[in-house]
UniProtKB/TrEMBL annotation, chain A:
Similarity comment: family membership: Belongs to the ABC transporter superfamily.
Protein name, entry field: ATP-binding cassette domain-containing protein
Annotated ABC transporter domain residues: 5-235
Any one Gene Ontology molecular-function term assigned to this protein's record: ATP binding
PANTHER family in UniProt: SPERMIDINE/PUTRESCINE IMPORT ATP-BINDING PROTEIN POTA, SPERMIDINE_PUTRESCINE IMPORT ATP-BINDING PROTEIN POTA
Organism: Microvirga arsenatis
Protein's UniProt keywords contain Nucleotide-binding: yes
């Protein structure tokens, strides 16, 4: 029953405000894709469009070859899990889970059998006759999950399902969600603003900003090779330094920025354009007190303790950057150092406006 | 902190109860008096003034009219008010603010002005029959209560519950009846009681809309007091009180007064 989902150039408006612009996204059958971004980026809008609670201005939505674009939401056959659980307060846990089966015209014995089976899978059999009000947050979310899964939908969607749970439970629940999703092989769309959650649970992640898709790839790729400065900053490449290529010799490239020359091998980065941005995380800039080191001259500012390292705010000719230094030699504010980029921990972005 | 309430609190609470109960006790007492004039404490005990209500045909007719108007008016107000309250809450963002205010206007306009306006437009203007005019007047009178009370109930209703039901395959209209309505039942019951009692006890609007042959109980009480000073008025008042209590009791029995606990 697992089916691919395809969004083709979707645009959406709230009144005259454009909230989604030309979004195309293909989710393969059985895949779990996260929509990740800050609030207002359009991720929830996208989910509501797929569910049918909103209509796109342009574009089409297909699920397993079936065109959903103009289909009313109750005919779409999509399992939804909400942030606030959205359990039916006037029905028992069992009746909550059986609700979708009832809509499908199943007899009461069959409904009960399947609902109980589903409750067993999420470990809630003893609570079948409880009222949802008597459950904890984690139990409520399990009921919501069971209720969405029991109808065996071709598509399962999650709208920030773990945001109302405490940190420990969040981690447990996301593992549980992933296991259930894997076991059923249900195509899934998962909306979250939590990067760790998205990366840990997803086959692929779509990072969104201001109604646009910024990058759509596997978490490993997003984490190591962001495609643009937005995604780079989003995944923690805090330092983005502009460079210009001064010399090329085969695969070896020399590039320059204020006060330093950087030697890179094209092999590690694919092609290197004449003008590019070098992006690093704080760990990607080694703090060196050796005045002869080939690095960015910097003056250390505020030092903060991260547990595994000291972090320094640094003033450089290329602007303010953040670097992590070793725990063994804490340096004082005002110290002049060289910041040496570690190529393995750097990535290269096209210069802004160049694409 | 002790669990015992403060003596002053107990005293004030007792005073409030006294203040609420004493007039009722006096009315009940006066209604049971055997005298031909209103008095308290009652002299002698008799139910003759209760019998007298039913001997005066005007009381008999107006009790029936009042109940009909209150019941039908409340029903119509619920039929208009529930969908209105739903739409106002469900589409709060999309709908203009003044639309909600529109449903409260009959409360904001002084009732006497409201009654007069209805007289001018319905009875005198459009020539609407008296019973129909009363029904329209009372429907409009209680509609704000219905919309407000059910809106308050819907305000705490999470509409993603409705979306969950729809996503599970329940059609929107069906979802309204199986999911939304059961969850605002307390509000609907509260609105019913409030509207029914408001209609049953209304004077100012009815004053303008009653006419030859058709009147409501409160208006008939007024008319009676203008001419007689016997305890019939007290016994009718007791009857009206018991009607109100009966309505609440019936509703409690059939639907449950769970809203009182919320």
């Amino acid at each position: 029953m697992t089916q691919p989902l395809d969004l083709q150039s979707i645009s959406a408006h709230y009144g005259t405000t454009k909230v989604l612009e030309d979004l195309s996204l293909s989710v393969q059958a059985g895949e779990l894709v996260s929509l990740l971004g800050a609030s207002g980026c359009g991720k929830t809008t996208t989910l509501r469009l797929i569910a049918g609670f909103l209509s796109p201005t342009t574009g089409s939505i297909t699920l397993g070859g079936r065109d959903l674009t103009r289909l009313p939401p109750h005919k779409r056959d999509i399992g939804l899990v909400f942030q606030n659980y959205a359990l039916f307060p006037h029905l028992s846990v069992l009746d909550n889970v059986a609700f979708g089966l009832k809509q499908r015209g199943l007899g009461s014995t069959e409904r009960r059998k399947r609902a109980m089976g589903m409750l067993e899978r999420v470990g809630l059999t003893p609570l079948a006759d409880r009222s949802p009000g008597a459950l904890s947050g984690g139990q409520k979310q399990r009921v919501a999950l069971a209720r969405a899964l029991v109808i065996e939908p071709p598509l399962l969607m999650f709208d920030e399902p773990l945001s109302n749970l405490d940190a420990k439970l969040r981690v447990d629940m996301r593992v549980e969600i992933r296991q259930l999703q894997r076991a059923n092989g249900t195509t899934s769309v998962y909306v979250t603003h939590d990067q760790e959650e998205a990366f840990s649970i997803s086959d692929r992640v779509a990072i969104m900003n201001a109604g646009r898709l910024m990058q759509f790839d596997r978490p490993e790729v997003l984490y190591r090779r962001p495609a643009n400065t937005f995604v780079a900053r989003f995944v923690g490449f805090e330092n983005i330094i502009p460079f210009k290529v001064t010399a090329r010799d085969g695969a070896a490239v020399a590039a320059e920025t204020a006060g330093m020359t950087l030697h890179l091998s094209q092999a590690g980065f694919g092609s290197i354009p004449d003008s590019f941005l070098l992006a690093t995380r704080p760990d990607g800039l080694a703090v060196s007190t050796d005045p002869d080191a080939e690095g960015l001259p910097a003056q250390l500012g505020l030092r903060t303790y991260l547990g595994r390292a000291y972090q320094y705010q640094c003033e450089t000719p290329a602007g303010r950057v953040v670097a992590n230094g070793s725990l063994t030699t804490p340096l004082e504010a005002g110290t002049r150092v060289k910041l040496v980029p570690v190529p393995e921990q750097c990535t290269i972005l096209p210069a802004e406006g160049a694409h | 902190m002790s669990d015992r309430p403060h003596p002053i609190l107990v005293g004030v609470a007792a005073l409030v109860y006294l203040f609420l109960m004493v007039p009722l006790v006096i009315v009940v007492g006066a209604a049971l008096s055997d005298t031909t004039y209103l008095t308290f404490p009652p002299k002698g005990l008799s139910l003759r003034w209760f019998e007298n209500i039913f001997e005066i045909s005007a009381f008999r007719r107006t009790i029936v009219t009042s109940l009909q108007i209150a019941f039908l008016g409340t029903l119509i107000a619920l039929l208009i008010g529930i969908p209105a309250a739903y739409a106002l809450n469900r589409f709060r963002v999309e709908l203009p603010n003044w639309l909600g205010t529109l449903f409260v206007l009959p409360i904001l306009v002084p009732e006497i002005v409201f009654g007069f306006a209805l007289l001018k437009s319905l009875t005198a203007g459009a020539g609407v029959p008296i019973f129909a005019a009363l029904l329209i007047g009372h429907t409009l009178l209680v509609l704000p209560y219905v919309v407000r009370v059910i809106s308050a109930s819907l305000a705490s209703f999470d509409f993603s519950i409705e979306e969950a039901a729809i996503s599970l395959g329940s059609a929107p209209v069906k979802t309204f009846f199986t999911i939304v309505l059961p969850n605002v039942r307390a509000g609907v019951i509260a609105a019913f009681i409030l509207a029914f009692i408001t209609s049953l006890n209304d004077v100012s609007v009815s004053l303008f809309l009653t006419g030859p042959g058709i009147s409501t109980l409160p208006i008939q009480i007024l008319a009676h007091v203008e001419q007689f000073f016997d305890p019939t008025v007290a016994s009718v008042s007791v009857l009206l009180m018991f009607l109100t209590v009966a309505v609440m009791a019936v509703v409690e029995r059939t639907l449950g007064l769970t809203f009182l606990a919320k």
